[in-house]
Write a structure and sequence with these properties.
The complex is a heterodimer of chains A (about 240) and B (about 850).
Chain A lengths: L3 E13 L4 E13 L3 E5 L6 H8 L7 E6 L2 E2 L5 H11 E5 L10 H11 L5 H11 L15 H14 L4 E5 L7 H18 L2 E5 L3 H5 L3 E6 L2 E7 L1 H12 L1
Parallel strand pairs in A: 3-8, 3-9, 6-7, 7-8
Antiparallel strand pairs in A: 1-2, 1-4, 4-5, 9-10
Chain B lengths: L2 H12 L4 H35 L4 E5 L5 H9 L3 E14 L2 E10 L9 E4 L8 E3 L7 E4 L1 H7 L6 E4 L2 E11 L13 E5 L3 H4 L9 E7 L2 H20 L6 E4 L1 H54 L4 H38 L13 H22 L22 H20 L2 H33 L4 H12 L1 H35 L7 E6 L4 H10 L3 E2 L3 E11 L2 E2 L2 H6 L7 E5 L7 E6 L4 H13 L4 H9 L1 E5 H7 L6 E6 L2 E13 L10 E3 L10 E7 L16 H9 L4 E4 H40 L1 H13 L4 H38 L8 H28 L2 H8 L1
Classes of the chains: A alpha/beta (about 240), B alpha+beta (about 850).
The complex binds adenosine-5'-triphosphate and magnesium ion.
Chain lengths: ~240, ~850
């Protein structure tokens, strides 16, 4: 399909350890279309984070190809991939990855400032408002609760309007209620700005909200399930 | 350059991650700026004075009156001339007297520069004149008025003349630099000189013919003089005169000052070293803090090149801002140094040149590149994947590589400061050796202390265990503090103790006065004068000045002569039959009765060769052992000497050590009696007038009664009071050490930086541990107690090491340099241990305040 934004073909990842080669991913292939959401699930140590890193162009696979939009990132060097990341990709992490010496506002504005965008601060304020932290812009991460910090991280990821948003266990460190709030936010923003959402999660409830769920075990893709309900909703919206 | 880099830098600063890096850098630049500004201004001030030093464009100087032909030549070249004659002489006012530095000048003096004069003691209403005093007038230095209880308008007696004091000298162009003559200046007219009858045959007078003219005539004169000199040399005759040019003096002083400057800078280098260490530690921590930021930047698509550039921009900014700040503080600090130096540096200081600023900014830059950059170098290579896998290792530049870069940077700076790679290597080598020894000793102490902790209460054990567990950090802190404290103690010890100990250990019959320049025919009269006053003297020695010309037929070069610390171009010779007190023969044999007997025997055997034999037996001399070693002469070598234009040979037959401490007349070179007979020697002796040498303070001492009589009856003889000399030495030492102390205090601040930085290194770990301890139920007091135990122990150990080191150094200075018997310095130990404990405990607790005050929950959350 022409609006495929991410395409993975026979991707394997092997790492060299002290005495032998360890294959973390075996021959993984799948596609995902623009503005869809994808959940990667699987037991601990299955290779989910490794896969996410490859998809986001943070690392190189040992074999296979990955296309991000029209870019074949597996044919690029780190500098090339960096450019693609700058254009297309945003992140939300399990551990938030907020910079402690920056206020919430500065944290959100930073990627835009680095990209040389004008009006970064205004846009950051806007997104902090959206995640309900309009009153906390001058607070430092250590002054915010875990859920608030994760919301700042979400605002930061969305403020750059990435085509693809990668999230590794975005609710992993949060209690259920807070986790639910953050995931609401993720999907809300996903709908508003047509961002493709790719997230790694343990939580069935979060996975269920995605249109596609792929399960990784022992480095192999063992199932790819289209969530009917979600597809229906999306189609309905597409028609309307 | 990107605006965002400044923003990032500002945020780092705001987050407190940079303050240590910056303070350390600021301190390093401060030290270097203060020292080099001071050195530069003093040096330039003195150089500037030197150009007026001659008060002329050219001068001929001699110990005898300047011959007419030199004057005629000047006239024929159209050169203006003036004359001065300087000598020391007693001046009188009522029943008071003073050994003054008299200078008789012609009215046209000075030819260059001006004499600054005042009509009141406070030095107001200064008037600049370019002529000398008129007949019947005396211009004097203000302190003479105090010394002799005089006022302007009173008269003083100078030789057979009574002169009215009409003005006070504030400054004279050719006063000379630095340490000045002991006596107060009295300037009189040259036309008064004959009538004063001050100058007699044998008087020690320095005559100068000053000249001023256009460049060409001056050049002509120089050429003429050099030509004349060359001919004289060819005829092997002794020169009576020397040509003085401003450049000559400048060259000599230039060298001295280059040495002084590099000495000061070297002591500053210790500060740079410590600050560099602190910077490296702080930068390491800063790099840790930046890791997340860089990983994120890279995940967001910033290339390594961009990250690298951003890093350089930030470091450049840090270097720039810190250097500017450091230069400013250093500029303030150098005024303190100048204040201290002012007492003995009577020069007007020009504004500094660009050089100190250059030195300071290069230092700042090199510090950043050598100490901060290596710790941050790996940042751009951080893999973007680190945002997902935090455990991914960072490829830190290896510790040994960082160490080497740091040492190299330091070495480059030191070599540049001192202008010599060898000096730099020796200096740094010695410094690192010192560090090594300190570290070893400190490690033993820590072992000991760890053992003590085993049977102590809970928090004591905890504190001591912490010290041992983090021993590499503990050692860094210990070494940094112990060495700086040690240097400070050494300098303080020298200032406060050494001179007084030296004085206290002088035997009671140490001479109090030196008599010089007593003419042959005056000796008996002076002796009886001293007898009448019931004064004892040491031996009387005949003295002539001469030079060493050849060793075994080989001309002694200037360089070879310069190798010996004691010998200058002109040396005092004596001859004596008995080995002087305090001298010991270490090699060869002192002449004794046997030589006379031998001569007798030989004369009997060989009546014809009498004269020959006598000569060959007489033709021997004895040399002081240090000088002999430095010159590289051995027993049996034949040296050609030149006295008063005549040369003769003598063989080295004995080598002696000399006890310079006994304050007797001592000589490097002593001839066999008879060898100097024909050179009309002057006599010298030391008088034991019982006046104690130990004059406190810098007040000029009361003159012993015999001095006035001496000077009146024998105006050409020179009486030197040792008290004056000692108080002058004391003054110089005290000022030099005060200046050093100030620099070392800055260095100590650098040591404090090291303490801070190394506490910071373990800060997160401590925060976590203490949070855990507190959640486990330890009270705040236990943790505070443990910290206090840690710092007190650290302070105690550094204090003990510092005091012990200082004591050892002082021991060697006492016994080897001053030849004193060794002595403990309990006050030094007290000071060392007290300041070590207080400084480290206060600074340490200050820096670790947060560990205790931040609630444990917050600590844990902060570290999450
Ligand atoms: N560079 C590497 N070197 C060695 N082993 C690696 C490396 N990267 C990943 N692994 C291993 O590969 C496996 C998969 O790791 P990955 O982080 O992708 O798991 P995961 O599915 O994200 O697990 P979790 O749910 O616990 O986060 C793990 O066993 C991990 O230890
Ligand atoms: Mg994972």
């Amino acid at each position: 399909m022409s609006d495929t934004i991410l395409s993975v073909r026979s991707v394997s990842k092997t790492v060299r350890t002290a005495n032998h080669d360890l294959t973390i991913l075996h021959d993984v292939s799948f596609d995902i279309r623009q503005s869809q959401s994808l959940a990667i699930v699987g037991p601990s140590g299955a290779g989910k984070s490794t896969l996410l890193g490859l998809l986001a162009g943070l690392d190189e696979p040992s074999a296979g190809d990955i296309w991000l939009g029209e870019h074949q990132i597996t044919a690029m060097g780190e500098e090339g991939r960096a450019k693609v990341r700058a254009q297309l990709v945003g992140f939300v992490f399990q551990t938030f990855q907020l910079l402690g010496s920056l206020t919430a506002l500065e944290n959100v504005a930073l990627p835009m400032e680095l990209a040389g965008q004008k009006g970064a601060q205004d846009r950051a304020r806007e997104y902090l408002d959206k995640v309900g932290l309009g009153q906390r812009v001058t607070h430092y991460p250590k002054q915010l609760s875990g859920g608030e910090q994760q919301r700042v991280a979400v605002a930061r990821a969305f403020a750059c309007s990435p085509k693809l948003l990668f999230a590794d266990e975005p609710t992993g460190n949060l209690d259920q209620a807070t986790g639910a709030k953050v995931s609401d936010l993720l999907f809300e923003l996903n709908e508003q700005s047509n961002t493709t959402l790719i997230l790694v999660t343990h939580e069935a409830r979060l996975a269920d909200r995605c249109q596609t769920t792929i399960t990784i075990d022992g480095g192999r893709l063992i199932s790819q399930v289209e969530n009917r309900e979600q597809v229906a909703v999306t189609n309905a919206r597409a028609i309307a | 350059m990107n605006w965002i880099d400044f923003k990032l830098l500002y945020r780092d600063w705001r987050g407190g991650q940079l303050s240590l890096v910056i303070s350390a850098l600021v301190l390093a630049v401060t030290v270097v700026t203060a020292v080099s500004l001071f050195a530069d201004r003093v040096e330039r001030g003195i150089r500037q004075q030197i150009s007026q030093f001659l008060a002329a464009d050219l001068a001929v100087r001699g110990g005898i009156e300047i011959d007419q032909e030199y004057r005629l030549k000047a006239e024929s070249e159209g050169i203006t001339t003036a004359d001065t004659a300087s000598f020391r002489s007693m001046v009188f006012a009522g029943d008071k007297n003073h050994l003054a530095a008299v200078k008789a000048v012609s009215f046209s003096y000075p030819l260059r520069g001006k004499i600054e004069l005042s009509d009141n003691v406070r030095g107001r209403n200064v008037e600049s004149l370019s002529n000398g005093p008129a007949q019947g007038e005396a211009w004097v230095e203000p302190r003479l008025l105090n010394l002799l209880n005089l006022e302007i308008g009173d008269t003083i007696e100078v030789g057979y003349l009574s002169l009215a004091i009409t003005r006070l000298i504030v400054n004279e162009p050719d006063r000379g630099t630095g340490f000045g003559a002991a006596g107060a200046r009295v300037m009189i007219s040259l036309s008064d000189l004959p009538e004063s009858k001050l100058i007699r045959p044998g008087s020690r007078v320095t005559y100068r013919l000053l000249m001023q003219g256009d460049e060409r005539s001056i050049e002509n004169y120089k050429a003429w003089f050099d030509n004349k000199e060359a001919k004289r040399k060819a005829g092997n005759a002794e020169p009576h005169y020397r040509l003085l040019t401003p450049q000559d003096s400048e060259e000599q002083l230039g060298e001295t000052f280059a040495r002084g400057r590099s000495f000061l800078l070297l002591s500053g280098t210790i500060g740079v070293l410590l600050a560099g260490l602190a910077m490296a530690l702080a930068s390491h921590r800063y790099a840790g803090r930046l890791t997340d930021q860089v990983a994120l930047m890279k995940a967001w698509g910033q290339s390594s090149a961009v990250v690298r550039r951003s890093q350089f921009v930030r470091l450049l900014m840090i270097a720039l801002v810190s250097s500017l700040l450091g230069m400013f503080i250093g500029w303030l600090a150098h005024y303190f140094l100048l204040e201290i130096a002012r007492g003995f540096l009577n020069v007007e200081l020009p504004s500094p040149s660009w050089r100190p600023w250059f030195v300071a900014s290069v230092t700042g830059m090199v510090c950043v590149l050598g100490f901060a950059l290596p710790a941050l170098w790996h940042l751009p290579t951080i893999a973007p994947l680190k945002v997902l896998r935090r455990d991914l290792p960072t490829s830190l530049v290896s510790q040994s590589k960082r160490l080497w870069v740091g040492v190299l940077a330091l070495f480059a700076l030191t070599a540049w400061y001192s202008g010599s790679v060898v000096t730099a290597a020796l200096f740094l080598g010695a410094l690192f050796a010192l560090f090594g020894v300190c570290a070893l000793v400190a490690l033993q102490f820590l072992r000991l202390v760890k053992g003590l902790g085993a049977w102590q209460g809970s928090f004591v054990r905890l504190g001591l265990a912490n010290l041992w567990r983090r021993r590499s950090q503990t050692l860094v802190q210990l070494v940094a503090f112990a060495t700086t404290l040690m240097l400070l103690l050494i300098v303080t010890g020298m200032r406060t103790n050494l001179i007084s100990e030296w004085e206290a250990q002088l035997p009671d019959d140490t001479p109090s006065h030196f008599l010089f320049n007593v003419a042959d025919k005056e000796v008996d009269a002076v002796r009886s004068l001293l007898d009448e006053n019931q004064l004892k003297t040491t031996e009387w020695y005949p003295m002539v000045r001469g030079r060493l010309v050849e060793i075994n037929g080989e001309t002694i070069t200037r360089e070879r002569l310069a190798r010996s610390g004691g010998l200058s171009r002109e040396v005092n010779f004596t001859q004596t039959f008995y080995l002087p007190d305090g001298n010991k023969i270490t090699d060869g044999q002192w002449w004794n009765k046997d030589t006379e007997n031998l001569a007798d025997i030989e004369t009997q055997l060989n009546p014809k060769g009498v004269q020959e034999t006598l000569n060959s037996l007489m033709q021997q001399f004895s040399m002081e052992s240090d000088v002999a070693t430095e010159l590289g002469v051995n027993l049996g070598d034949v040296i050609t000497f030149s006295v008063g234009g005549l040369t003769f040979n003598a063989r080295l037959t004995s080598i002696r050590t000399v006890n310079w401490q006994n304050m007797n007349p001592n000589f490097y070179i002593i001839f066999h009696p008879g060898l100097l007979d024909k050179y009309a020697p002057n006599w010298v002796t030391a008088v034991k007038a019982g006046t104690p040498i130990r004059a406190e303070g810098d007040a000029l001492s009361q003159q012993a009664p015999f001095v006035a009589e001496m000077v009146q009856r024998f105006p050409t003889a020179i009486v030197l009071e040792l008290t004056d000399v000692v108080s002058r030495i004391r003054e110089v030492i005290s000022r030099v050490t005060q200046g050093l102390e100030l620099i070392l205090l800055l260095v100590l601040a650098c040591g404090a930086m090291v303490l801070f930085a190394s506490i910071s290194v373990s800060f997160d770990e401590r925060l976590r541990e203490n949070a855990i301890l507190r959640t486990l139920g330890s009270s705040k007091n236990v943790i505070l107690g443990a910290l206090a135990v840690e710092y007190v122990t650290l302070g105690l150990v550094s204090g003990v090491i510092a005091s012990a080191g200082a004591e050892i150094v002082l021991y060697f200075v006492q016994t080897k340099v001053f030849d004193l018997s060794a002595q403990w310095h309990p006050s030094l130990w007290l000071l060392g241990i007290f300041s070590g404990v207080v400084l480290i405990t206060v600074l340490g607790l200050m820096r670790s305040r947060e560990i205790i005050t931040v609630p444990p929950l917050e600590s844990l959350r902060r570290l999450a």
